[in-house]
Structure formats: structure tokens, C-alpha cells
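Sequence, please.
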């Protein structure tokens, strides 16, 4: 194992690691992902609050501020897919003005890039993450763009009441773009609206790394080694620039 040569070693098979693995594997690189937790499959996921704790890490509380410690365990992830294995898949779009906060509102800082610079990435992400939404309705706030792959999700009955209230108050509302299947799409079923996104979706209607980037990475040759904890990254001169690091 110590002398094994690969092109890329990625620590963590979560949201970020999965994207890197997919891109690099498709480029022909030999990719290995090291994941400290189990290698979950969709069939392992159960719509249960108690069971859902298995895919979230446990540890000491994190003191953010004040005198009352709290933990971020509910927002973290343990195992392949990481925290993106259990989330509500909201993908809010940044607006052109969000990149110019300093110029527009004299607060914070302007981004060094613009909305236009990100349009190609946004277009690619919309297709990859299988988003549902109403792009036309969003044009009241942002420039025109391509439609989402799927129509927006349905509104619950309590949401219909809220919408009437917003409309009476003159507040414009549009469906939020989400990474959920509103209809059957590319072999994945539509959402059942059972509300258990935060403990994982066993049917695959929720876009998570297992069925998006991590799944694509595996199909193109990337290897996932579960229950593999990285403790140190050793650096040294190596034989050439491509072999300068060893991961333990």
C-alpha cells in the first residue's frame, strides 16, 4: 500500500470530493477516494429520525460563541455522500447584484468575478444535479436562462395558504429551485413528499453524491475505499512533482 501509485487521492467522498473525483476520473486519471465512514447505498437509507443518526457524525460539542456549547453533528455527514446524503436540496440562485454587494450597498466586498462569469457553471450544475424549478418565474430577479430539467415541486396545502397571504401583501414569490425529482427523470422516481430528506432518500429522488457525481466517478473508474481514516499527509521531494505526498 505504501508504494502504490495513483494519480489522485481525495480525502472524503462527500459533496466536494465527489465532484473532483468525477471530473478527474473522466479526464482519465486514476482516482482513489478515502472515506472514514461506511460506503452507504440507497437501500441502506431508512426514513427514520433515529436511524438517520447513523449517517451523521457524533463528537464533542463545538463552542461557536457565548456560554452555551452546541454541536454541528446534524449538519455533518459520516460515510460516502457526506452531509449531502441528507439535506433539503435547496439550490438558491445568486443574483447579479449579489456579486456587487460593495458597489450596490456599500457593505462587505464585491466578488472578483461576475454573474456572467458563473453562467456556464450554473448551467452545468443545473443539468448535473437534476434540478426542479421555474426559470421563467425567476426572471423577475435574474437574467433569462435555460429552463430547469424538471418542473417545480408541488406546494403543500399550508404553503398554498401562505402564498395567498404573500399575494395579498404584494410580496412576489416563485418556486425555489431544488435538487429533487418533481417527476420521474433519467431512471429516478419522483419525490414521494414524505419529508425525510434530512435522513437520506432511499428511492433516489433526492440528488445526492451517490447518484450524481460519486456515481459518475465510479462509472469512469474511480475507486472508493470506505472505513479509511486519514491521519496525516506527509510531504517530501519524491521522485518527481507527481509523487511528493504520502497519505496515512
Amino acid at each position: 500500500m505504501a508504494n502504490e501509485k495513483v494519480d489522485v487521492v481525495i480525502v472524503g467522498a462527500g459533496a466536494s470530493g465527489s465532484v473532483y473525483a468525477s471530473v478527474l476520473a473522466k479526464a482519465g486519471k486514476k482516482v482513489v477516494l478515502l472515506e472514514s465512514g461506511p460506503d452507504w447505498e440507497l437501500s441502506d437509507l431508512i426514513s427514520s429520525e433515529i436511524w438517520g443518526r447513523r449517517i451523521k457524525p457524533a463528537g464533542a460539542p463545538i463552542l461557536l460563541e457565548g456560554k452555551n456549547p452546541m454541536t454541528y453533528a446534524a449538519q455533518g455527514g459520516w460515510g460516502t455522500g457526506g452531509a449531502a446524503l441528507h439535506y433539503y436540496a435547496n439550490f438558491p440562485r445568486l443574483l447579479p447584484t449579489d456579486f456587487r454587494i460593495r458597489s450596490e450597498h456599500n457593505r462587505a466586498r464585491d466578488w472578483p468575478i461576475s454573474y456572467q462569469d458563473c453562467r456556464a457553471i450554473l448551467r452545468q450544475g443545473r443539468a448535473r444535479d437534476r434540478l426542479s424549478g421555474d426559470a421563467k418565474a425567476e426572471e423577475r430577479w435574474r437574467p433569462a436562462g435555460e429552463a430547469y430539467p424538471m418542473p417545480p415541486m408541488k406546494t403543500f396545502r399550508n404553503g398554498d395558504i401562505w402564498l395567498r397571504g404573500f399575494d395579498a401583501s404584494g410580496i412576489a414569490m416563485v418556486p425555489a429551485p431544488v435538487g429533487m425529482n418533481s417527476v420521474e427523470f433519467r431512471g429516478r422516481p419522483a419525490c414521494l413528499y414524505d419529508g425525510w430528506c434530512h435522513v437520506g432518500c432511499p428511492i433516489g429522488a433526492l440528488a445526492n453524491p451517490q447518484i450524481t457525481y460519486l456515481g459518475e466517478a465510479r462509472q469512469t473508474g474511480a475507486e472508493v475505499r470506505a472505513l479509511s481514516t486519514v491521519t496525516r499527509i506527509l510531504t517530501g521531494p519524491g521522485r518527481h512533482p507527481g509523487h511528493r505526498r504520502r497519505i496515512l
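Strands lie at 8-11, 31-34, 223-225, 233-235, 245-247.
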